[in-house]
Amino acid sequence: ALAGADWQLLVETSGISIYRLLDQKTGLYEYKVFGVLEDCSPTLLADVYMDLDYRKQWDQYVKELYEQECNGQTVVYWEVKYPFPMSNRDYVYLRQRRDLDMEGRKIHVVLAQSTSVPQLVERSGVIRVKQYKQSLAIESDGKKGSKVFMYYFDNPGGQIPSWLINWAAKNGVPNFLKDMARACQNYLKNT
Which stretches make up the START domain (predicted)? Predict the structure, then answer.
């Protein structure tokens, strides 16, 4: 629910609505995304989202992406390509997937949050994103597609111009979801 806070509608495109909320302390935005991916079932979408090896094939911004066991936990390392002249960013985070049954509604939930482990040290020339949180919920749209809800916040660090952050939120998220929908179609062919 968006009530009670100053969430602004940032963009509506292709059945996807993106809202943002300014965090007064950091000057950064939190994002909520609502949308429907019509040709991708919830289970397939959740499987594609969790498949890191497959993501390297379809996400053009992935430089490096893998899971590693650290201190008894499975940690994800993800390096994201940023446009020149900016430095790439990397993330170290924990993630969990749960498939829930809420009064007959099957909902796939993926939670991710940044963490720090001594095994994955910061690299020269790459800025470590230390604040990252994402929640994703996927359920049937009642047909053959998926309703998607995503909450997202990260602090990319460094001096990124606000125009680029706005461009990424307005264009990057819808483009990512379109790429993911395409990846769902291709996933069926590859499995």
Answer: 1-189
- The DSSP secondary-structure symbol of 104 reads T
- Cβ-proximal residues to 108 (8 Å cutoff; 6+ apart), any chain: 42, 43, 45, 46, 97, 98, 99, 100, 136, 137, 138, 139
Whole-number Å distance between alpha carbons of 77 and 64: 8
Specify whether the CB–CB gap between 145 and 39 falls below 8 A: yes
The residue extents of the domains of the chain are 8-188
pTM: 0.89
The 10s digit of each residue's pLDDT in 75-125 is 999 999 988 888 999 999 999 999 999 999 999 999 999 999 999 999 999
- In CATH, what number does 8-188 get? 3.30.530.20
